[in-house]
Amino acid sequence: MKLTILGGGVAGAVAAGYAASKGINDISLIEKDMSLGGLHRDIVIDDFHYDIGAFFFWPYHKLIHVFPGVKDLMVDIEPLYCLSLTEKGNLDLYPSTLKGYMKDWGITDLCLDVFGLVTNRIKMRLSGHKINSVDDEMKYYLGPFYQKTGLRKYIARLYGMSPSDVGLEFSQKRMSFIAERFRTSEILNKLLTLKANRLNQWTTFPISYARPTSGFSSMYSYIGEELKRQNVNLCFGVQIKEILIDEKKIITSDGKVYTYEHLLSSIPITLLCKLSGIPLNIKLQHKSLYSLFYVSNSEIIPKCHVLYNFTERGLWKRITFHSSYYGTEKNKHYFVVEAMPEERHLNDDGVSMLDQDFKDTFANTEFFGNIKKAELIGSHLTPNAYPIYTKDFDTGAIDEVKQFFSRKSIYLVGRQGEFDYLSSSDVAQSAINTINRLLNSAD
Ligand SMILES: Cc1cc2nc3c(=O)[nH]c(=O)nc-3n(C[C@H](O)[C@H](O)[C@H](O)COP(=O)(O)OP(=O)(O)OC[C@H]3O[C@@H](n4cnc5c(N)ncnc54)[C@H](O)[C@@H]3O)c2cc1C
């Protein structure tokens, strides 16, 4: 079987390694950059390596499964501490616990809110209220807790719109654990078996891994070597001019022609359509993300690897304290803040406005002194960071495009390839599922 893969991010790399391990012996991977990794890359400023997200690899991540040797290059984190900053400036276990809620709001509010949750759910059921948006679904499952834990604001910040306009795909893809944990039968079951304290205990992994201290490049050069050892033909620095889908040919800007039997595409779906001359009659929306890079003389929050913003304030959503697991660099602590810019921030002053906005969130907290002194040493804008599914977004149209391509032996994988809200682990799994489907259909 002759398989060609477009894009060498995690999706393309895992697909190539997995396909080779399953005996596909004619594999080419075409990547426009000069190395593998795609969005898995760090930005180096003055010897500090910053990721543009919070990349942790759980033991079940398929990248580790397909390239087990990467584990030796990665940094072990045991356990990973993910915390939330609450509305009242306290710290809680991410995303929220009953204990943390009580610290913020007190026992009386807790009791009233449990009552509010139950009555709200009964009311919605009796009135036959239809769940149309993320807002409806979260209100149903969490009642007053939805607003007061800061979850509603978190979603609004992430999407840059009211959660009442956000389509249900978002909660199905990213928040299905809430529906699973807080459905009525589950609550009753836990109460009857006296496990109510487990209702809001979140699954944590005692062991996780982070990319090597020296950056993603060493990890992906190892992966590149492994792929070459498996006879995968890696084509770097290739610009695709056209894809002739009926002839199964790829024409590159330097006039070369690549033929394929099956094509796996992880490049953005819009680009695939353009290169193959297929109209895409859906408007795809994205939200951009700013990564702000900081150094600091002192540790901001001890024993915290990642901090989520569950307050009503600020446009930042998450801080990743790199030095809490890589150690300090030049005796300095360093961390990255992910901020969701508004239109007014996409100009020269935007970054300093977001810096101020981030620091202001901590006013009246015990961390303000240290945060104020942290120095912003760089930033990076990722346009098209998150796919946006609004309430009226037609996901069926995306499925139709996928089906059309699959009839032409082109399979879509990856975050932008599928236009799906996928984490790096989901992307790797989806690449493997696609290869398995391909192998099954060839049998
Ligand atoms: C800002 C941000 C933060 C994130 N944070 C996290 C996080 O903390 N945890 C997590 O699990 N996930 C996170 N993600 C998601 C994660 O990065 C992605 O799911 C994953 O890296 C996507 O991999 P991919 O292979 O689908 O795409 P990509 O990594 O985008 O790979 C696509 C590849 O295709 C190549 N390409 C594009 N056009 C062409 C062309 N014409 N010809 C040839 N090659 C081409 C690109 O150069 C790229 O290498 C984040 C994403 C973003 C944007």
Word description of this protein:
One of its GO terms (molecular function) is UDP-galactopyranose mutase activity. This is NAD(P)-binding protein. This protein has 443 residues and is an alpha/beta fold. Among the domains are: 2-40 and 215-282 and 390-442, FAD/NAD(P)-binding domain (3-Layer(bba) Sandwich), CATH 3.50.50.60; 98-195, no CATH class. Helix content is 39%, strand content 22%. It is built from 17 helices and 20 strands. The protein has helices at 10-21, 62-66, 70-73, 98-126, 134-142, 144-148, 151-159, 168-174, 176-182, 184-192, 216-229, 269-276, 323-326, 350-361, 368-373, 395-407, 424-442, and strands at 2-6, 26-31, 42-45, 48-51, 56-57, 75-77, 82-85, 91-93, 208-210, 233-236, 240-244, 249-252, 257-259, 262-265, 285-296, 306-309, 316-320, 333-339, 375-388, 410-412. The strands form five sheets. Strands 8-7-16-17-18-15-19 form a seven-stranded mixed sheet. Strands 10-2-1-14-20 form a five-stranded parallel sheet. A three-stranded antiparallel sheet has the order 5-9-6. A hairpin with a 4-residue loop joins strand 11 and strand 12. Helix 1 runs parallel beside helix 17 (424-442). It is globular. Flavin-adenine dinucleotide is lined by residues 6-12, 30-33, 38-40, 52-55, 240, 266-267, 271, 289, 382, 385, 414-417, 422-425, 427.
Brief description of this entry?
With 443 residues, this protein is of the alpha/beta class. 39% of the residues lie in helices and 22% in strands.
